[in-house]
TrEMBL record:
It comes from Streptomyces daliensis. Belongs to the iron-sulfur cluster assembly SufBD family. NCBIfam families: sufD. PANTHER family: PROTEIN ABCI7, CHLOROPLASTIC. Residues 149-377 form the SUF system FeS cluster assembly SufBD core domain. Residues 1-30 are annotated as: Disordered. InterPro entries: Fe-S_cluster_assembly_SufBD, SUF_FeS_clus_asmbl_SufBD_core, SUF_FeS_clus_asmbl_SufBD_sf, SUF_FeS_clus_asmbl_SufD. It comes from the Bacteria. The gene is sufD. The lineage of its organism: Bacteria, Bacillati, Actinomycetota, Actinomycetes, Kitasatosporales. This is Fe-S cluster assembly protein SufD.
Amino acid sequence: MAEAQNSPEDLRQAPVQGGPPPVGSNTTGSIAVAAESTVATRMSAPPSFDVADFPVPHGREEEWRFTPLERLKGLHDGSAEASGSLKAEISAPDAVTVETVARDDARIGRTGKPVDRVAAQAFSSFEKATVVSVPKEAVLEEPVRVTLHGEGGVSYGHTVFDVGAFAEAVVVIDHTGDAVRAANVEFHVGDGAKLTVVSVQDWDDTAVHCSQHNALVGRDASFKSVVVTFGGDVVRLHPRVNYAGPGGEAEFYGLYFTDNGQHQEHRLFVDHDTPNCRSNVVYKGALQGEAAHAVWIGDVLIRKEAEGTDTYELNRNLVLTDGARVDSVPNLEIETGEIVGAGHASATGRFDDEQLFYLMARGITEKDARRLVVRGFFAELVQQIGLPDLQERLLAKIETELEATV
């Protein structure tokens, strides 16, 4: 498995100057591409709630160069009019308040603005938003479960999860069915609170899903995001985090299984703009099929005022068949040398022959050995979910995906 990485010691330097010189390496052939930079990816336009502030992308822009625009069904150019239906169900403990609110509700937009045209289109197009509130100091014994089932057509949405100070909650957002969907999701984590969010993309093969996730993490608060992507023709997710006070922690875990013809793109941005905060990113993907394409962009920016930052990001990809393509780009920009640690790594490769040989030497068939390797590859991330019923469902889904390969 080819790997490019920088250690924390390599990156405890003065602020990075100039352009983004490549310091990574590329794997051979059309199987996968890995790149690495010490400067965070630049967006072509500043964040804005107004879709008019974003030009229609043409695919040459940094944030769009990997995305098949022609398959977005008009989400990017304003031609996708809301015409479909999405069945939404929310199951929550008694302490939780669920509201449908108008666009002018003060809780909307507190965690950040849209950063690309699709997110801005979603913000400009939704009629009503959903606000899910967890009161301060509440410790939920059961998760909040949000089920979104597409029934065809185009839909836009906006959801806010507001977790009060010192509260603890788990939220599961489950996407199924067929839809062309663009949405913004906000997570406001109060001081000392703990929030875990599991977002599952288990769409039908024809679905298109673009979503920006904004998290604002309060003082001494903890936020954990677990993203699981299996279905959809095109899925493009943009998780982001900012810190509202020192001592905040953010963890991002991701698991994706990309089949023939699917495009799955995960673009993360961790904005360390507050002192003494921490972040950790681990995303893993498996790919199979001639036209499978996965994109992972991991941007971490440590601003000059963010002294005491501790951060690391890792992306690993397992290519199961010839022809699958990975674009993996970890980026790190440091504007202060007064940090605890910072590093990033990217690795892409095929099955480890030594692992297969070890298992087969103990009487395990090659087919079963390959299954065990893939399950072991994803095991760490599945365990982060912490919900047995959902973990079992996802492991069964992985087994189903592997039936087509091993």
